[in-house]
Structures are given as C-alpha cells and as structure tokens.
Amino acid sequence: MNKEPVSRELFDEVMVPNYAPGTIIPVKGEGSRIWDQDGREFVDLAGGIAVTSLGHAHPGLVGELEDQAHKIWHLSNVMTNEPALRLAKALCDLTFAERVFFANSGGEANEAAFKLARRYSWEHFGPEKHEIISFRNAFHGRTLFTVSVGGQPKYLEGFEPAPAGIHHAEFNDLESVRKLISKEKTCAVVVEPIQGEGGVLPASPEFLQGLRELCDENDALLVFDEVQTGVGRTGHLFAYQMYGVTPDILSSAKSLGGGFPVAAMLTTAKVAASLGVGTHGSTYGGNPLACSVAMKVIDTVSQPDILKGVAARSARLRKGMESIGERYGVFSEVRGAGLLLGAVLTEQWKGRAKDFLNSGLEEGVMVLVAGADVVRLAPSLIIPETDIDEALERFERAVKKLCA
C-alpha cells in the first residue's frame, strides 16, 4: 500500500480542531532524541507529557510488544489473561494495593476511582454521603466527571450541567478543606501529590498528612491522582511513598506504559469489594499488549539503581535550569520532584511560557508548559546525562534569543 505524503496542513483538513499541534511532525525516536520529517533532531525533555518513561523505542519494551503480538492481542474481560495478572500482582507487591482495575488512560482510571469512592460510601453509609472534595487548578482528565472534579473551569465551559456534589478547596490549605468536609456528606478527597497541569506545584507533607487525618475522622476515602507523578517520575515508584502518606485509592497511567496506552486504579480489598460484577468495566482495560509492555516498565523502573538515577538526573537538570534563570532573569524558581520539574517565570515574563516552548523547538529541544507561567520538564527517567547537558545548551540558546 502506497502511503500518501502528509503535512501539518492535513491536520486542519481531517482532524477535529480541539488540538493545535506544532508545525513539525516527528517520525522517529530513539532514547531521548526525536527526528522530524525533514531529519531535524530534537532532545526530548517533554516525554510525551511525562509518558515515555524509558525513552523512545526502548529495546526492552519493543521486545515485549513484539513477543506478545505473536500470542494474544485482545480477549475482552469475558476472560482474563496472563500479562494482566502478572502486572496486577507486581503492582500489589510493590505498593499498598491489594486490588487493581485496568483501563486505557488517566482519565479512565480517575473515572473509575471517583465512581468507586461514591459506590463504596453508598454501600457503607447511604446515598447522602456522595460529595467529593478536590482542589482549584487540579486536573484529573477530560471525561465529564473528571473535568468536574478537576479545578479548572475552562475545561468544563460549554459542557454543563456538571455532575453535582463536587466542591473545590485551596491546594496546600488544610483549613479550606476543613470548612468543606463533613462526616455526613463527604465520600472522598481527591488530590494530586504534585499538581501537574496546575503548574508543577508540590503538596507539602503536612498538607497530605492532614488530608489523611481529615479523611479518617470523617469516614471519607483519600484518593491520590498519580497519573503524572507515578511510576518513578519523582524518584520513588509512587509519590505517596515519598511523602509517607498512604491513600485508599490511587490512579496511575502516563509513565506506566512507557508510551503504550494503559492505566490502573489501585486500592484495598475492602474498598474494591464495592465494584462488584457488572458495576464498572472497560473493553480494552487489561489488554495483553498493554500489560506486557507495562510489566516491563515496572520491572525496569522499580530497580533501585533506576530510581536513584532519577534523583541524580533531577539535580543536574534543576541546577542547569536554575543557572539559566539566574543568567537571564527568566525564572523565579524551579520546583517539583524527580523528573517532573517546573521553571516558574518571573513577573516580567509571566504569561509567555508558550514562547519558551516555541523558541526551544527552533533550537532543537522539546519542553512543555504547565499553564501560561511555568515551563515544564518531564523527560525519560533514564535520559543520558550528555543529553541533559545538550538540552540545556540548546535551551539556553532559545532563552538568549527571547531575551535579545
């Protein structure tokens, strides 16, 4: 079959206009390098928005995918499969979890988490206890339920009416939660340990510990959205382990599949019991191809030397970005954890994060934004130090051009 040549212009002709992709079309990736249609090379500090946890075309992941492709692709959940069971067992062994539900995306994992929280409270306390507390500037996905729980009104605009019973407190402000929570009505508190889309803003340990205590006092479940922070991103397998605060339900996606669509909701046996047969499902959830790849990711990322390496790479990247910020007066701080970092723009540069992204592309380095005021970095967890140095050199040239 002849493949017709494609261009960025074709996007506008055939795709729904809910995205505004850049002008380049990447066609090849290897490790932390990407090449476009014209053969231009880029150092990737974006990681597909914190997804390609082991870089592009990782030999181990490619091998797992090829091997499973010759066995079973899909069964649906009328039957189980070996890769799904192995992955679930590994996730339970490595975390607080005793039960796992598989889906395809972070939004779906969160949808399952929120439905489970309500179902659990409905079974144990009655229908009045259904309210969910989340936080302003939070992001939990794009389904109607998850954008409603998320704390960014722009994602809900035009899609109302939203599901009822959702309240938003202030992130890192325990008193604002205390004013909203009640034993009679609150079924869950939902929080990102580090707000990703909201600006790479870490929760304080005291805040998360306080949420745990408030949930315990009010018979509410604590839900951690670790779609972006999970699977080694912070230098721990999951961020809850870094904080020492254990949730009742945890969602994971992004890095879990290293680029292959897969997601998981983790919980305890007691809470999981509320999703009995027929109460929830996913046609592709637990797909053998996805679970085979994710198992290889977990096997690799959970190794102590890999997690230790995340910390070393984080320090190198953070120091480089801080130095650029000092030299050109563009960043007030670099915050985050592990290889989820946010360079916060100074007052003079506020609102211009996209300019840094675009200038970086011109110089051959891919970065992200987290809102209009933060440049976000989420590269491969095993990015070579030489690639970090090269990326920083390219990004400094990009910043220099902006400042000229």
UniProtKB/TrEMBL annotation:
Single GO molecular function: N2-acetyl-L-ornithine:2-oxoglutarate 5-aminotransferase activity
A GO BP entry: L-arginine biosynthetic process
Subcellular location: Cytoplasm
One Gene Ontology cellular component annotation held by this UniProt entry: cytoplasm
Pathway, per record: Amino-acid biosynthesis; L-arginine biosynthesis; N(2)-acetyl-L-ornithine from L-glutamate: step 4/4
EC number(s) from the headed UniProt entry: 2.6.1.11
Co-factor requirement: pyridoxal 5'-phosphate
Top-level EC class: transferase
Pfam family, one: Aminotran_3
Binding site for pyridoxal 5'-phosphate: F139, D225, E226, V227, Q228, T283
Annotated residues for binding of N(2)-acetyl-L-ornithine: R142, S282
Co-factor binding comment: Binds 1 pyridoxal phosphate per subunit.
PROSITE patterns reported for this sequence: AA_TRANSFER_CLASS_3
Reactions catalysed: N(2)-acetyl-L-ornithine + 2-oxoglutarate = N-acetyl-L-glutamate 5-semialdehyde + L-glutamate
Note in the entry: May also have succinyldiaminopimelate aminotransferase activity, thus carrying out the corresponding step in lysine biosynthesis.
Record text on subunit structure and interactions: Homodimer.
HAMAP family documented for this protein: ArgD_aminotrans_3
Family assignment from sequence similarity: Belongs to the class-III pyridoxal-phosphate-dependent aminotransferase family. ArgD subfamily.
Protein's name in the database: Acetylornithine aminotransferase
Protein's organism: Marinobacter mobilis
Gene behind this protein: argD
